[in-house]
Amino acid sequence: GESVGLHLPTLSVQEGDNSIINCAYSNSASDYFIWYKQESGKGPQFIIDIRSNMDKRQGQRVTVLLNKTVKHLSLQIAATQPGDSAVYFCVSGGIKAAGNKLTFGGGTRVLVKP
Amino acid sequence: DSGVTQTPKHLITATGQRVTLRCSPRSGDLSVYWYQQSLDQGLQFLIQYYNGEERAKGNILERFSAQQFPDLHSELNLSSLELGDSALYFCASSVPQQGALNYGYTFGSGTRLTVV
What we know:
The complex is a heterodimer.
Chain A: E1 4-6, E2 10-14, E3 19-25, E4 32-38, E5 45-51, E6 56-58, E7 62-67, E8 72-77, E9 86-93, E10 103-104, E11 108-113
Parallel strand pairs in A: 2-11
Antiparallel strand pairs in A: 1-3, 3-8, 4-5, 4-9, 6-7, 7-8, 9-10, 9-11
Chain B: E1 5-7, E2 10-13, E3 19-24, E4 31-37, E5 44-50, E6 53-57, E7 64-68, E8 74-78, E9 87-94, E10 105-107, E11 111-115
Parallel strand pairs in B: 2-11
Antiparallel strand pairs in B: 1-3, 3-8, 4-5, 4-9, 5-6, 7-8, 9-10, 9-11
Protein backbone atom coordinates (compact mmCIF):
# COMPACT_ATOMS: atom_id res chain seq x y z
CA GLY A 1 0.00 0.00 0.00
CA GLU A 2 0.95 3.62 -0.21
CA SER A 3 2.86 5.30 2.53
CA VAL A 4 3.77 8.88 2.99
CA GLY A 5 6.43 9.51 5.58
CA LEU A 6 8.25 12.40 7.12
CA HIS A 7 11.96 12.59 7.85
CA LEU A 8 11.78 14.56 11.10
CA PRO A 9 9.11 14.28 13.77
CA THR A 10 9.94 17.66 15.40
CA LEU A 11 11.53 20.78 13.98
CA SER A 12 12.60 23.67 16.21
CA VAL A 13 13.03 26.94 14.38
CA GLN A 14 14.06 30.39 15.50
CA GLU A 15 11.48 33.05 14.79
CA GLY A 16 12.36 34.80 11.55
CA ASP A 17 14.33 31.88 10.14
CA ASN A 18 13.17 29.74 7.24
CA SER A 19 11.72 26.28 7.90
CA ILE A 20 11.98 23.26 5.66
CA ILE A 21 9.81 20.21 6.23
CA ASN A 22 10.53 17.11 4.19
CA CYS A 23 8.33 14.22 3.15
CA ALA A 24 8.81 11.02 1.17
CA TYR A 25 6.06 9.16 -0.62
CA SER A 26 6.17 5.64 -1.99
CA ASN A 27 3.41 5.44 -4.60
CA SER A 28 4.81 6.65 -7.88
CA ALA A 29 1.26 6.80 -9.24
CA SER A 30 0.43 9.71 -6.90
CA ASP A 31 -0.07 12.85 -8.91
CA TYR A 32 -1.49 15.26 -6.40
CA PHE A 33 0.11 16.44 -3.16
CA ILE A 34 -1.04 18.70 -0.37
CA TRP A 35 0.41 20.18 2.78
CA TYR A 36 -1.90 20.63 5.74
CA LYS A 37 -1.29 22.53 8.95
CA GLN A 38 -2.90 21.43 12.19
CA GLU A 39 -2.84 23.70 15.21
CA SER A 40 -3.44 22.26 18.63
CA GLY A 41 -7.06 21.22 19.13
CA LYS A 42 -8.10 22.16 15.60
CA GLY A 43 -8.76 20.36 12.37
CA PRO A 44 -6.13 20.27 9.62
CA GLN A 45 -6.10 23.30 7.35
CA PHE A 46 -5.11 23.28 3.69
CA ILE A 47 -1.92 25.25 3.09
CA ILE A 48 -0.82 24.57 -0.46
CA ASP A 49 -1.04 21.88 -3.08
CA ILE A 50 0.93 20.83 -6.13
CA ARG A 51 0.19 18.57 -9.06
CA SER A 52 2.71 16.21 -10.56
CA ASN A 53 3.12 18.29 -13.72
CA MET A 54 4.84 20.95 -11.60
CA ASP A 55 7.99 20.86 -9.49
CA LYS A 56 7.50 24.07 -7.55
CA ARG A 57 4.60 26.15 -6.37
CA GLN A 58 4.63 29.27 -4.24
CA GLY A 59 2.05 30.68 -1.91
CA GLN A 60 2.15 33.36 0.71
CA ARG A 61 5.42 32.70 2.61
CA VAL A 62 5.25 29.02 1.64
CA THR A 63 6.80 27.09 -1.21
CA VAL A 64 6.25 23.44 -2.04
CA LEU A 65 8.86 21.54 -4.01
CA LEU A 66 8.20 18.22 -5.67
CA ASN A 67 10.91 15.86 -6.86
CA LYS A 68 9.20 13.00 -8.63
CA THR A 69 12.46 11.25 -9.43
CA VAL A 70 13.13 10.50 -5.76
CA LYS A 71 9.50 10.76 -4.65
CA HIS A 72 10.19 13.63 -2.29
CA LEU A 73 8.13 16.60 -1.27
CA SER A 74 9.12 19.57 0.85
CA LEU A 75 7.46 22.59 2.37
CA GLN A 76 9.45 25.75 2.90
CA ILE A 77 8.14 28.43 5.23
CA ALA A 78 9.83 31.80 4.92
CA ALA A 79 10.41 34.03 7.94
CA THR A 80 8.80 31.61 10.36
CA GLN A 81 6.42 33.22 12.83
CA PRO A 82 5.03 32.03 16.18
CA GLY A 83 1.71 31.36 14.47
CA ASP A 84 3.45 28.78 12.30
CA SER A 85 3.87 26.50 15.32
CA ALA A 86 1.78 23.46 14.43
CA VAL A 87 1.93 19.94 13.07
CA TYR A 88 2.36 19.77 9.32
CA PHE A 89 1.12 16.81 7.29
CA CYS A 90 2.05 15.95 3.77
CA VAL A 91 -0.65 14.17 1.84
CA SER A 92 -0.64 12.34 -1.47
CA GLY A 93 -3.31 11.04 -3.75
CA GLY A 94 -4.79 11.02 -7.19
CA ILE A 95 -5.70 14.08 -9.18
CA LYS A 96 -9.23 12.82 -9.76
CA ALA A 97 -11.43 13.59 -6.80
CA ALA A 98 -14.28 11.14 -6.64
CA GLY A 99 -13.60 8.06 -4.58
CA ASN A 100 -10.11 9.21 -3.87
CA LYS A 101 -8.74 8.71 -0.41
CA LEU A 102 -5.81 10.91 0.41
CA THR A 103 -3.00 9.34 2.40
CA PHE A 104 -1.71 11.37 5.33
CA GLY A 105 1.86 11.22 6.52
CA GLY A 106 2.70 10.95 10.21
CA GLY A 107 3.20 14.69 10.70
CA THR A 108 6.09 16.97 11.66
CA ARG A 109 5.72 19.25 14.64
CA VAL A 110 7.20 22.70 14.10
CA LEU A 111 8.10 24.67 17.23
CA VAL A 112 8.95 28.32 16.71
CA LYS A 113 11.28 29.76 19.33
CA PRO A 114 11.00 33.49 20.08
CA ASP B 1 -15.41 28.45 9.82
CA SER B 2 -14.43 25.77 7.30
CA GLY B 3 -18.00 24.96 6.29
CA VAL B 4 -17.79 21.45 7.74
CA THR B 5 -19.73 21.19 10.99
CA GLN B 6 -19.14 18.54 13.60
CA THR B 7 -21.17 17.98 16.73
CA PRO B 8 -20.70 17.61 19.58
CA LYS B 9 -17.34 19.29 20.13
CA HIS B 10 -16.68 17.34 23.30
CA LEU B 11 -18.06 14.06 24.57
CA ILE B 12 -17.31 12.21 27.77
CA THR B 13 -18.73 8.76 28.24
CA ALA B 14 -18.11 5.53 30.12
CA THR B 15 -16.63 2.31 28.83
CA GLY B 16 -19.14 0.00 27.21
CA GLN B 17 -21.36 2.86 26.06
CA ARG B 18 -22.35 3.89 22.56
CA VAL B 19 -22.06 7.37 21.03
CA THR B 20 -22.93 9.01 17.75
CA LEU B 21 -20.84 11.72 16.16
CA ARG B 22 -22.38 13.92 13.53
CA CYS B 23 -20.93 15.70 10.52
CA SER B 24 -22.46 18.13 8.05
CA PRO B 25 -20.26 18.49 4.96
CA ARG B 26 -19.50 21.72 3.16
CA SER B 27 -22.37 22.78 0.96
CA GLY B 28 -22.30 20.87 -2.32
CA ASP B 29 -19.70 18.29 -1.25
CA LEU B 30 -20.85 14.72 -1.72
CA SER B 31 -17.89 12.92 -0.17
CA VAL B 32 -17.46 12.61 3.58
CA TYR B 33 -14.42 11.11 5.26
CA TRP B 34 -13.93 10.14 8.91
CA TYR B 35 -10.56 10.18 10.60
CA GLN B 36 -9.40 9.26 14.09
CA GLN B 37 -6.51 11.04 15.75
CA SER B 38 -5.15 9.77 19.04
CA LEU B 39 -2.99 11.97 21.26
CA ASP B 40 0.06 13.21 19.38
CA GLN B 41 -0.60 10.76 16.58
CA GLY B 42 -1.28 11.11 12.92
CA LEU B 43 -4.64 10.89 11.22
CA GLN B 44 -6.01 7.38 10.79
CA PHE B 45 -8.50 7.02 7.97
CA LEU B 46 -11.65 5.24 9.06
CA ILE B 47 -14.20 5.35 6.27
CA GLN B 48 -15.46 7.35 3.29
CA TYR B 49 -18.94 7.88 1.93
CA TYR B 50 -19.82 9.29 -1.46
CA ASN B 51 -23.38 10.40 -2.10
CA GLY B 52 -24.80 8.02 0.47
CA GLU B 53 -22.73 4.97 -0.38
CA GLU B 54 -19.69 3.58 1.33
CA ARG B 55 -16.72 4.17 -0.96
CA ALA B 56 -13.61 3.23 0.98
CA LYS B 57 -12.80 1.64 4.30
CA GLY B 58 -9.69 2.07 6.37
CA ASN B 59 -8.74 0.87 9.81
CA ILE B 60 -12.24 0.98 11.19
CA LEU B 61 -13.10 -1.39 14.01
CA GLU B 62 -16.15 -3.62 13.78
CA ARG B 63 -17.54 -1.80 16.82
CA PHE B 64 -17.63 1.36 14.70
CA SER B 65 -20.03 2.06 11.88
CA ALA B 66 -21.05 5.04 9.80
CA GLN B 67 -23.66 6.14 7.35
CA GLN B 68 -24.43 9.06 5.10
CA PHE B 69 -27.98 10.27 4.82
CA PRO B 70 -29.88 11.66 1.81
CA ASP B 71 -29.19 15.21 2.98
CA LEU B 72 -25.48 14.22 2.90
CA HIS B 73 -24.80 14.59 6.59
CA SER B 74 -22.97 11.66 8.09
CA GLU B 75 -22.92 9.94 11.44
CA LEU B 76 -20.18 7.85 12.99
CA ASN B 77 -21.42 5.36 15.57
CA LEU B 78 -19.00 4.04 18.15
CA SER B 79 -20.20 1.20 20.38
CA SER B 80 -18.86 -0.90 23.25
CA LEU B 81 -16.45 1.92 23.90
CA GLU B 82 -13.05 1.23 25.36
CA LEU B 83 -10.53 3.55 26.99
CA GLY B 84 -8.38 3.32 23.86
CA ASP B 85 -11.14 4.85 21.76
CA SER B 86 -10.48 8.21 23.38
CA ALA B 87 -9.36 10.43 20.54
CA LEU B 88 -10.22 13.32 18.27
CA TYR B 89 -12.56 12.30 15.49
CA PHE B 90 -12.47 14.45 12.38
CA CYS B 91 -14.83 14.62 9.50
CA ALA B 92 -13.77 16.04 6.15
CA SER B 93 -15.62 16.66 2.92
CA SER B 94 -14.42 17.09 -0.62
CA VAL B 95 -15.18 18.02 -4.22
CA PRO B 96 -18.38 16.39 -5.39
CA GLN B 97 -18.43 15.36 -8.99
CA GLN B 98 -17.21 12.10 -10.39
CA GLY B 99 -14.13 12.85 -12.42
CA ALA B 100 -13.68 16.32 -10.95
CA LEU B 101 -10.17 17.42 -10.11
CA ASN B 102 -9.07 16.91 -6.57
CA TYR B 103 -8.90 19.97 -4.39
CA GLY B 104 -8.15 18.20 -1.15
CA TYR B 105 -10.33 17.98 1.87
CA THR B 106 -12.00 20.52 4.10
CA PHE B 107 -11.92 19.43 7.70
CA GLY B 108 -14.27 20.12 10.54
CA SER B 109 -13.00 21.14 13.94
CA GLY B 110 -13.44 17.65 15.33
CA THR B 111 -15.15 15.89 18.20
CA ARG B 112 -13.02 15.13 21.23
CA LEU B 113 -14.17 11.83 22.71
CA THR B 114 -13.06 10.88 26.19
CA VAL B 115 -13.92 7.40 27.46
CA VAL B 116 -13.63 7.01 31.22
